[in-house]
């Protein structure tokens, strides 16, 4: 039996008095394509941010690729994670955000080569060669010299995907990557993600409101409400025959 690449055990996370995640557990198998759906505020983005170490957990355990993300004390408290350990763990994961987050003062090419050069010490020539392959894969090779401000939202997002791939992560996280785009630009980004899903064995977690895409893309869909997984299953089961009342009423509103 292969081991899960992501193992989350009973994690909780509060922002002030608001409990975003409540004893959440989930597993993701290597290569699995997962869609996280559910109402706004149900904690989906927070899970991705926690995996990317952009947010800390209050309690619980997370193992990624066989290694604890954080070291825990016996009493369950977090030991302040060693920055070198976190940097290494982050290299296993690429994340694409809703709002692109490209470095505005750098060319497309420099955006993509930066992380491999800084965090892995890849020489510029090798980093550029790989970056050009990735930009070609997302259809952005001829814009390598352009600055982010010269690009459309869909183009920026495709560059952001190439940048996230530059460290050859085992896991890719996509956080509502099309929700800030004009409708006519959504498809070009979804096409890149379809291609990635078809051509690589990366594990992918997708938070999305695009239910049609979630249905086609995912091996498994998790429906979240109030920091908990209310229902999970194959896309056809969740979208066509949801069992839980909360899933049914959510899908009725959104589809
Ligand atoms: P979802 O992705 O399901 O819409 P989120 O994980 O983004 O939900 O957020 C869950 C809740 O946590 C929201 O109500 C949000 O306002 C709150 N929240 C998220 N991040 C922070 C933060 N850094 N500080 C305070 N509240 C936050």
Automatic annotation (TrEMBL):
It is a peripheral membrane protein. The keyword Iron-sulfur does not apply. InterPro entries: AAA+_ATPase, ABC_ATPase_HisP-typ, ABC_transporter-like_ATP-bd, ABC_transporter-like_CS, Ectoine_EhuA, MetN_ABC_transporter-like, P-loop_NTPase. Residues 6-251 form the ABC transporter domain. Keywords: Amino-acid transport, ATP-binding, Cell membrane, Membrane, Nucleotide-binding, Transport. Its main location: membrane. PROSITE patterns: ABC_TRANSPORTER_1, ABC_TRANSPORTER_2. The keyword Transcription does not apply. It is found in: Cell membrane. GO terms for molecular function: ATP binding. PANTHER family: AMINO ACID IMPORT ATP-BINDING PROTEIN, GLUTAMATE_ASPARTATE IMPORT ATP-BINDING PROTEIN GLTL. Belongs to the ABC transporter superfamily. This is Polar amino acid transport system ATP-binding protein. It comes from Kaistia defluvii.
């Amino acid at each position: 039996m292969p081991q899960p690449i992501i193992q989350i055990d009973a994690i909780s996370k509060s922002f002030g008095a608001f409990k975003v995640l409540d004893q959440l557990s989930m597993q993701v198998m290597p290569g699995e394509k997962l869609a996280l759906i559910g109402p706004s505020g149900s904690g989906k983005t927070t899970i991705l941010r926690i995996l990317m170490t952009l947010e800390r957990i209050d309690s619980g355990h997370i193992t990624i690729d066989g290694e604890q993300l954080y070291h825990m004390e016996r009493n369950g408290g977090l030991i302040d994670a060693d920055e070198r350990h976190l940097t290494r763990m982050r290299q296993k994961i690429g994340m694409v955000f809703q709002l692109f987050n490209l470095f505005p003062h750098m060319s497309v090419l420099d955006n993509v080569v930066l992380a491999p050069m800084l965090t892995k010490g890849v020489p510029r020539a090798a980093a550029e060669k790989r970056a050009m392959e990735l930009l070609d894969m997302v259809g952005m090779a001829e814009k390598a010299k352009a600055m982010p401000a010269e690009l459309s939202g869909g183009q920026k997002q495709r560059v952001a995907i190439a940048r996230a791939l530059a460290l050859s992560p085992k896991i890719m996280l996509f956080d509502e990557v099309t929700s800030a785009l004009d409708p006519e630009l959504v498809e070009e980004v979804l096409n890149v993600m379809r291609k990635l899903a078809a051509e690589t064995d990366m594990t992918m977690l997708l938070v999305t409101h695009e239910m049609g895409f979630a249905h086609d893309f995912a091996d498994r869909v998790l429906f979240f409400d109030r920091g908990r997984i209310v229902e999970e299953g194959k896309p056809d089961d969740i979208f066509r025959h949801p069992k839980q009342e909360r899933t049914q009423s959510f899908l009725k509103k959104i589809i």
